[in-house]
Amino acid sequence: MDEIIKQLTHDNNLLEQQWSDIFSRIEEASISNDSKLILNALVDYLLTEPIDSLPCLLKYLLITMVIEQLIKKEVSIEINDLINVFIRILDSSRVDQLYLKFLETIYKNFEIGERLCSTPIKTDLIEKILQSLQKKTFVFNSNEDTEKWETFLTQTIFSNSTNDMNILNKQDIIEEMKANFQQFYKHAVQQSQQSSVWLKIATILNESSSKIFTNETSWNMILSDTNLSIENISFDCITQLIQSYKNDNELVKIGYTKFLTIFERLILVNNYDDAYQLSSNIIIPNLSIIDLEILFCTIIRLCPIVEHRDLFCSRILDSLILALANLQIKKNLAIIVFDLALAILKLCVYDAPDLSYSLLRRNDFYPWQELINGLVDLVKTCISYDIIIENNFFSKLDQLENIIDLIYRKIQAYPIISKVIHPISVEAVLRWSNIQYNGSHHVYRMGNSIMNLIDLRQINEDICMKFIDAIQTRVHCDNEEINNKSRLFFNNMSQHLGEFIMQLKRLSHNIHSKLATLFLSLLDYSFYDEDHNMTFHYVTLISILYRTASCIFNENDARLYEPFLDRMYMNVKDDNETMFHQIWVNFWLIAGVQVQTIAANHIEQFLDHTFNRKDMCLSSLLLTLSVQHTELFYSHFDDLVNILFTDNGQYLTNLFGLFLLIVKKYPEIVSSKHIDYIFSSIETISFSNELCIIIQTLSCVANYHPYLFDRHCGKIICLIIEKQNLLIFECFRNYIISSIIINNENKANEYLNILIDILKNKKCSNEIQQDIFYTCLLIGLKYKQLLINRRYDFKVLGSNLIVNYIDNATISELDQTTIKQAQLEIEKIELCINKTKMNIKTEQLNTNNIPSWSYQVSKLLNNPSNNDWRLLSKQLGFSCSEIKHWSMQTNPCMALLNEWFITHTTEEAIYSLIKVLNDIGRYDVEQIIRQEVLKTGQTIPNDLSVDIKRLPPVFLSFHSNEQIRVTKLKDHLEQAGYACQMYDEQTEINILESLIRGSKVIVCCINILYDQSENCSKVFHLILNMKKPFILLYMEEQTWPSESKLKSILDDFLYIEFYNDTKVNDWPENKFIELLSQIRYHVAPDPDMICEQYHHWFVPRLDNLIFLKSSNEQKQNNSISFNDIPLVVSHPQIIISYQWDCQKDVLNLYKQLTQLGYRIWLNIFQMGGGDSLLDKYNIAIQQSLCLLVCITPKYMKSINCQREISLANTFHKPIIPLLLEETNTWPPPDLILSIFVHKSYIDFRHSNRYDRWTGKQFVLLLAQLKKIIPNVETDKPRHLLEMQRPISASRHSNNNDQRSKRISSAPIIPKSQACSLM
């Protein structure tokens, strides 16, 4: 038969033609004993079958027919031979159905499986079959092939049927060949992903012997194959694996690491479905029993390398992290859990922040101090999400905000963390604040939280400036989309900027400048939207403004905000906006106290707001400002008085302090209309303590102008009886005493009767009784006889003090103190009254040249504004030092006008004022002047040839032959602070007239030619006629010719010998200093002009006694030590008037009297400041109690000295003449000096020239002083108060840094404020 098979054709058509013959031959053929030849011949025929041959039924029939013949004739075939031919076909690369037919037929008909399993089991042959099967992929091109092969392998060779004996997967065979079948099973599992045939095989094997094919050993075999591709593991295989391990915890523990390996490999090949099944069925249910660290490390390792991060989060991590959130995790895993949260967050996908936060929010779990670097990485990772675009308003990305908030809470507990996170946070916020960046909602929400991570301790000006710039840019941004998304972010940014400002406290000028610009720009936008919600601009303003206000400490910074504040004020005033009002008020309440000089510029606004709106919010600031700037409230005093009693006095509580301060400082401001209004209003408002204080404050007015209260005396008495209030009685007491001092004894008797009547009133309280007794004592100190007349009444009323005082009986120490106090109070009131008289006289003296309309003009120009009296002064040419000096006066504009009218004719002064006022936009003031001038019948020229600029104050008159020396003199005077103009005799007289009028003092440089010049003579007479102060400088030694034009005039005046015999210098240096001091009498130097050579020329050098350099002869004399001697005093008791040449004697006198306790005013110690010495003297003479006049021949010629005497006489000051040198006659013949006619002098002419102030004459001087100033105990040692010597009076030293020495001051009268040095 084998030969027949060998001869068979492969051609299907030919085979069909020959088939009947072939069939017959095979049926009839004999079969040899070597049956394997037949099988091999059949296999050879099959193996030689062409690949492209089409399926042929006859060939299938051929195989069946041959096998059946072998079976039918019961041919014995060895199992080995059967397996060999089986293997030959199975090992073939072809897997078509012809081959399968052969394998099926031979396997079934010869019962190969049963024979292999029969005892003994043919393990070697079974192994061959298994190995041959493993060579096959079983991947087919058609489903038909797949199904037929699957049927053959899973129903013929391997089967789940327990009755089938012809299979290879019998339990005993598998157990016998365990290793072989495990390896075969492993291969089946590995190939299951590629072929369903292999999957079926693995399934049958698993079902037939699960213990062998699902244990750890089996999976170890699978996973130990490094060449295995995870793609080859099928879903069913994973399912089988899951089912096998699902309920076996011990098995899971053993194989857990292998599961994770499969899990990891599945993720890496993007098989998320199988990985999810493995995770949800094996990993997650067993989290409590497995090693979590390995799991965490696996996920951490996977996070940065997974391809589909979104799927990884949603399919794998979501359920896993949810399970972990409810799991108790040991703290020793905290750091790796944190790393897991960080690794998940670094996936930078939509779901990651939510999963990360689920891990991070564990309480009391993480060792945060050990995670500083991790937290930095966490913040950076959160920030990296700004590249994700998310259009939804809310999303899972909002968990980034929660993560940042969590970090912020940890920073609060562990501040060291903030040091590292700070710069990252600042950089992120500034990046997102850039208008060019258009982030999603989650970014700006995260930014709100990241701002909290900014460390305030690390804030600097650079960060602050960048925040301001960012906010400023946002203010002007018109991109509505960005504005809507970032509104809360920028609101928060503004609030943090406010915190930065508070942290810095001291802001640079640049920051203030930027902030001021920002605030001003915010006002260009609405503060509320259509729904009346606060806009970003409003939030920004209130977030920063108040904190900024608290950081304004100097004027330059404060001025930057004035345009903003003025605009705010206009909004408040014009629109009546409550919102603007609150902002404006609050800013000033904070900043106004710190920069009072700037706030003072806005007092008009504050008062207008307070009085017109009746809003008392600024009352505390007004009170503060009034302490240093009381004069600015002067013009609003009427409004203040009116509002105090408006609306039933409800504003008393807020404003009574302001009223009190103004009245105490300027009691003269209160007029009869004010007093009348106050007392008429008392009846209409509720009685309160504030009202009592106001009435008490009027006691200051009563000291100065008691007549104002005459009409209201009865009402005051009724109030005293009705209210029994000591504060009201204090006002009444001062009124009584002042009236008594001004009037006479009859008035005193009248008031004493009134007081006794009040005492007899049964309603009179004990406190009021004691105050009335004290007032009666005050009256008695002036008119004791009045008390004597009423002794009986005081005896009955029980005033032992007054009775003892009347009887001159022994008085207790306590009563003595009371009497002394009463005496001092009398003196104090007398001083007030005298001061009032002197002020009236001084005002009359100072305002002779000023038109009446000046008061009205001054009231307007004194109000601070951009074009007030200061700008007028600048336009008129006055120096900064003069303006600064006037600003410290009560009425600066009046001082300016007085100066202007003194140095100009009335016509020139008015014309120039009107022109400048028009130039600076003060049309209101210009109109007032024009109207007032017209009322007087005068006309104002439309044009006038006049130099509107203020002329230099010093005029140098000279002859042309002194041109060189006078030019040099001018240069030196200007270096010492005095601007000069110089003109010789060749200048036209009409030009000189206006120039001289515009100067303050004229220096006449006299020589022979000056005397002989007709023009010089005219100039000098012009000076005399204009009554201008002048100083005579003799430029050479004068030998007056008989025809001299000026000798008779000049002989009557003092001069300075301004020539030098040695010809080394142009003039003696000490004479130049004397000239400076003489000019200083009339003009204050301009400190801006003073050069280094003459720096502090006006400061006395104590080593030389005076501020001029001493000659050699002077240096040999004993010097005077001024240690512990005050050089500058306030409220002096004595003024010493003297001529320059006796200065050393005067200094000795000054020292001795000061050491005895007197307060003395000396002109050489008054060189500083902006007033002229004449102005200083005017003030000092009013305050002093007497004038000491040091008479010498030169003194009698000194115009300045004569003026001092005249002014003292005007104010009725006691004058004590001290004759120091011989004079031709006594009293002096001069008209002014004729006041000495009835005065005797104290003769010091023959005293020791080195110690003049000793002996009988000095004792006589002290006796006279004692009468005038009884309070100084000259016979007892005095304890000097320690006070600071001014720098201007420091000792001359080469060491410029030497500190000034603390020295003692002169004594003061009891209860008087201590003198302070300038």
TrEMBL record:
InterPro entries: DEATH-like_dom_sf, Death_dom, TIR_dom, Toll_tir_struct_dom_sf. Coiled coil: none annotated. Residues 854-933 form the Death domain. GO terms for biological process: signal transduction. SMART domains: DEATH (SM00005). Transmembrane segments: none annotated. Residues 1130-1244 form the TIR domain. Residues 1285-1318 are annotated as: Disordered. PANTHER family: NON-SPECIFIC SERINE_THREONINE PROTEIN KINASE, SAM DOMAIN-CONTAINING PROTEIN-RELATED. This is Death domain-containing protein.
